[in-house]
Request: fold
Amino acid sequence: MLGKLDWSAIPFDQPIPLIAGAVVLVAILAVLIWVVVKGHLPYLWQEWITSVDHKRIGVMYILLASVMLLRGGSDAIMMRIQQAVAFQSQGYLPPEHYNQIFSAHGTIMIFFVAMPFVIGLMNLIVPLQLGVRDVAFPTLNSVGFWLTATGALLVNLSLVIGEFARTGWLAFPPLSELSYSPGVGVDYYAWSLQISGVGTLVAGINLVTTVLKLRTRGMNYLRMPMFCWTTLASNLLIVAAFPILTATLAMLLLDRYLGFHFFTNEAGGNVMMFMNLIWAWGHPEVYILVLPAFGIFSEVVSTFSGKALFGYRSMVLATMAICVISFMVWLHHFFTMGAGPDVNAIFGIASMIIAVPTGVKIYNWLFTMYGGRVRFTTPMLWAVGFMVTFIIGGLTGVLLAVPPADFMLHNSMFLVAHFHNVIIGGVLFGAFAGFEYWFPKAFGFRLDERWGKAAFWFTFLGFYVTFVPLYVAGMLGMTRRMQHYDVAAWRPWMLIAAAGMAVLTIGVICQIVQLVVSIRNREALRDRTGDPWDGRSLEWATSSPPPVFNFAFHPDVRGEDAYWDMKAHAQQSLDSSPPEYHDIEMPRNSPTGFVCAFFATIMGFALIWHIWWMVILGGIGAFATFVVFAWRDHDEYIIPADEVAAIERVNLEERHSLVSMAGTV
Amino acid sequence: MSMTVAADRATSDPHHIGLVIEHPGPAPKRTVTAYGFWVFLLSDIVMFSCFFAAHAVLADQTAGGPKGSEIFEQRNVAIETVCLLLSSFTCGMASIAADVRNRFWFYLGMTVTCVLGLIFLAIEFREFAGLVARGYGPSRSAFLTSFFSLVGCHGLHVSAGVLWLLTMMAQVFAKGFRADVLRRMMCFALFWHALDIVWVGVFSVVYLLGSGA
Reply:
């Protein structure tokens, strides 16, 4: 009846996951009770859960990422403490639990923090920057988000019911095959990534189509803001790379569930094929993550330098070059596995070459700042911190791309330090910069600068104190994923890293405090102009938060930096007679995404535990959802012209008063 | 947008040399839907190519089991291919019928497409069942693993296509040739033709090359 599921699945003998699970459960219950008692449920359902508005979906993505960041961060703290105390002792974590923690940490940070964070920001901002009302497929967008949430939910379920993979974040066979991982951990891993992967693919298709087909009048390719370009590149990579992940995980699951022999040791299976496939997805994946961050930095640096982006076209070229080259470097992940010097040399050179377009970008940002009137706001601090940190990470990457060096350093703490250096210094700093930069656009008030700056400095310093020691430990020969060790030379570095982790934690706390303080002082921080930073691209041309239709008219774009251009010619447009408003058609809210995710959760859980009747139930439910959605008669509603005019008038009056104020000063 | 405005803008924007074609604004819904679906199909083909790659790697790993030339029946595969190619033709007829709003030819075209798809699936199923009965199931060897997965993945797509086809017919029956129904029909047709293209690959790589070896 319940497949492999019974009471032994709940780890009564392990206090840490049980207490953590209980705390989370209590927190969820408390929030639920609060929501129901306060009567917020209808609001949540109508305005958020069933929303197909790209801005709302973007915010929900970012919320999911933030919550999962706390979970993945807790795992990181536990690992740093373990390695600090596990010198000539077992430490406080049993090996099996430790293995689950590092696997979960990697999986969560990449798939459920970095991915939803950048996809959320792209969702939120790209249609606004393109000057359009929505993404290409609004309901599909909601489906994509909720499937990602399903994946995150399944990973968290594994904390209390059953176990998570002990294989590392990419579940290499043969360790992940049934004979070496007989539990449900790898199944949790594979199904949650399979389901959220579909969500990611959907988001990718949606954003590619949005950028290529939905641009406002005059928004030629070479007038798109940089963030739109990097979004395009990143989502092209998603569309090309995520199906590889889907296929690879499908093969692994076939091996585990039906006794196939893709990656087994017996009957002719080929483990190296898994390595090739997973890295053919995995290496583009890091550019999927970092390219949007590059876009954010381009916007932030140009806005806060008060200058157009230096070398816009070379930036576009560099972005697309990275997009292509990223598919030609995957083999550097197994230089040491005997491919031979020729193959290693070619992939080593390809891996080094990708640093060239990245270098172009760094120089362009520096030249954008050069001679500009630089304002060191919080987003700008993240951008400058990124430039310093990312260069170090990039250089150690070039070092690792040299095959002989890689023979010494692969799978060492040096590697761990390197990829944290680029992922934190690149993606996470970018996500935070974007968060600070676009927060007023999403919510209508700015974030507190003092706490934001404190968060930056603690995170920045904490980052270095944590990860520079890991470089050293790696040089001293410490390999990754060690549960305990006996080498005295590594000990001090592990202690310093643990101290750095404490500083990083203070940074995280500052960020939470910043959010709370800002929400409390929201009236003082209110932005009525819709353009708090003196921005350059179209998202600042509408009010904050934007009306559901984004723009009453599709803006007419005449060059790069569309909104900057409009502001430069503001007096003329103010004098012109008020425009004639039209009815606007918008997609109707739909519970499809939520219902899909509901059935996907049931199906995923049932598949993990081999509860076959429940799998069938979930499948039927999914098809029924599809049919019900297809049968809808009215998927759009009309916002009448009067209403559009009323909303737009408020927006324009704010701006006019601002302009006239500026005129009198 | 008039030409003069465009030319005027070209001179004001120093980055543009010569005549600039101004982007006219968001594309119509039909274009957007078709474009998005094409992007999906490309991603689906990437997924298929992984299974093709796996097959290329594992084709000789028979682990003492049968080779391709010992288990493939060319006659069956030929019938399957004919069915599928013909179904693509009838699907095209149904699409044309939908475009000119002719219910009779639409239903007829779709029904024939469905029957041909089902025949294809039946033959494939019989082939699979026969192999498993002889002890040549997918867990026998890595070669059979990749064979069953690649061909089965295509078969799974055809099954989903048949389900979609029936839904499409029901949609036209209940809603008529509404704009959104027609957009879905266009996507379905793209999907069905794409399956044909993938089958040509399967036919060539798995059956033709496999029989020679």
Remarks:
- Chain B touches chain A through 51 residues (CB under 8 Å).
- Chain B has a mean pLDDT of 87.
- The two ends of chain B are 61 Å apart (CA to CA).
- Helices of chain B lie at 3-12, 29-58, 68-71, 74-99, 103-133, 142-175, 179-212.
